[in-house]
Amino acid sequence: MRHHGFDYLVPDSLLPTLKKGCRVIVPLGSRVTQGFVIEIKSTTRVKNVKPIKENLDIIPSLTEELIQLGSWMSNYYSSHLFRVLQMLIPTALKTKMEQYILVNDEIEKDNISLKELEIIEWVAKNQPIKQSILIDHFSNEKHLIQQMLQFGLLELKRDFVDKGTSKKISFLKLKLSNEHLLLEIAELSKQARKQREVLEYFLFNQINEVSLSTLMSKLNINRSTIQSLVKKGYLEVIKKETARDPYKDRNFQDKRVTLTVEQEQVLRKIVSSFNGEEIKPFLLHGVTGSGKTEIYLQSIEEVLKEGKDSIVLVPEISLTSQMVERFKGRFGSLVAVIHSRLSQGEKLDEWRRIQRGDAKIIIGARSAIFAPVRNLGLIIIDEEHESSYKQEENPKYHVREVAKWRASYHNAVLVLGSATPSMESYFNAQNNQYYLLELPNRILGRKMPKIELVDMRDELRVGNRSMFSQTLQEKIDDRLNKQEQIVLFLNRRGYSTFVMCRSCGYVMKCPHCEISLTYHHTNRVLRCHYCGYTVSDPQNCPECGSKHIRYFGTGTQKVEEELVKRFPGVRVIRMDVDTTSKKGAHDKLLASFRKHEADILLGTQMIAKGLDFEKVTLVGVIAADTLLRLPDFRAAERTFQLLTQVSGRAGRHHLSGDVVIQTYTPEHYSIQYASNHDFQSFYKQELKQRKMMDYPPFRKLIVVHFSHQQLPNVMKASQLFVKELNRLVSRDVEILGPVTSPISRIKDRNRFQCMIKYNDESSTLNKVNQTISLLIEGLKDRNLLISVDVDPYVLM
């Protein structure tokens, strides 16, 4: 892993503008690429140092703090420094190399063919032209174009395109005084009626400029009218930069709420820590519906009074819209929003508003933790236990750890909020590493929903083979008759979990990954949820040719279909990855449900937390055991959290709520304690299990993943790694493996892994990195991929 940089010469022309944090174009080997200036010094030991080619920034893209954060992340998460720094800026600021074709005017063009002449003339007319566009235009002449480049008739130019451009709008500016304007209107001919309308619009509205699009729509005119007025010198076209605001057409309102005594006590403790000398993180443990969001809002009001900025993180994009509604309603344009469903341009404009200091409150999912604020006073991580706060691609960082680093840097307050805190966070609170704040009751004396467990084995015994227990069916009927709303949760998407032949037992699997394909009924395809491989719905078994193909398991599409059959006329909104892939889909679906345009909201994890609907009085969990079956030491914790969170969607307002949890293992402690809203008992029981197995929070973990197309190669590499690491580390470090990964093959690559259990010591990670470097150097196998996951959340 490379955690440091390269030395380059700063040309005299760049000395006045080049600063730490600027993006630059630099040569690297035989190519040129984008880099970041992380240090400026007066001397170097490097001989024949190459010069920087170009500075891309007037204002540095990275602050001093973000450079330091990147360096820490690179070391702690064992990731390349450049990869980390790139992640800290919007995608739109990552330059892209384009290849252009031009005609070489210095080469004699004697004895060329008619086709070559045609290509030369077309390029001369359109140059510089992208190579890809030229090849598309002359798709049958790829070989000829390559020859023309080889012999110099055409030349190839490589250039970097900075995608971080601002959006500009055309405005029309009046170049006449009022007196001249009256005269010109009077002198226009009768045929120039549209031109007269344009000039009269400026006169009657007493304006000097107007956007081109506004004028064209209001007066129903075309561009030729405008061009005529520009030619006459009456108007000029000017370009103005404008921000892309994803919420510009929305009107937000939110009222300040009087806090309960419990909320007031919590708020006072948070606010009293502002400007403290050394601040420990706060863990706000509040049951669902206890009013944590209002505490967040009023904490931010106090931070604003100090002139400082706040970052608020939510785990799901589906929660962003609800948070944005409340925060924009309270704080207006001071709020900036960053999440993955915004366009590149929208994200860039929000990022620039933060960079300029125009936005003081940043709301978003995981990546919002890197917002370039300069005076951070408060970080809030809502639903802090959520696994989505851990990134599963390199660098495999956890938001909570990054937030701790940034809070320490700024001496800011960090608040971790959850109804079901992670085992690690609650353990830290119990051991005085965090301040613990408790909200054990719902606001306004509202009761927690009544939870009923249904043993699906009993349903089978009495002949009920549907996915809905008798209890759940009766309660759905009751709510539909009362015109109340229902949330149904299933932790799967698609139609069926897997497809199997009843004749020979063959299960349809992905040819590239060791996992069964999921059936999607809408377009009748089987899809791999790891690599995206799709195949049409089979009519016959590929193994034995039998027609006895059956769909097993239950997916969200299948539940939707069954609901419509069983409850005629029911209106269902389905929310899963398939229905929310389009931009704005989350907001539209949730807004529709809020307006009671549907009776049932059916979905996966994205509906399980944070959502607040007044008329939801019933929550149904179709299959509570899904997570329990995973080979993961956090399976019980995740099950408890998910059941508690989804149950908390019921009865949050004046109507009381019921929850029905369908399960095949009602005796499991995570399900039992969730049904009784008993976090403390679950925590104690789970802590015993973790202590017995030496898992977090008692020890730290590193998982090292190996992958290769050839099975012998990955086995050899993983075994050599374990042998060498055992030689380097102390005896109290435990190395498990290497073993085949739970999913043994993804995208045609065989996967092995080993787990390292250790105490909180940086030397272990250093030795892991040292061993990997020795292994890569010794094997010299470019197809071998090794990745390190520090504090892993998923062991698949």
Explain the overall architecture.
The protein is built from 24 helices and 31 strands. The chain is of the alpha/beta class and 796 residues long. The chain has 6 domains: 12-93, GIY-YIG endonuclease, CATH 3.40.1440.60; 96-161, Arc Repressor Mutant, subunit A; 176-233, no CATH class; 261-437, P-loop containing nucleotide triphosphate hydrolases (Rossmann fold, 3-Layer(aba) Sandwich); 450-497 and 553-616 and 667-678, P-loop containing nucleotide triphosphate hydrolases (Rossmann fold), CATH 3.40.50; 700-790, Alpha-Beta Plaits, CATH 3.30.70.360. A 7-stranded parallel sheet has the order 12-13-11-14-15-10-16, with helices on both faces. The model has no long low-confidence stretch (mean pLDDT 88).
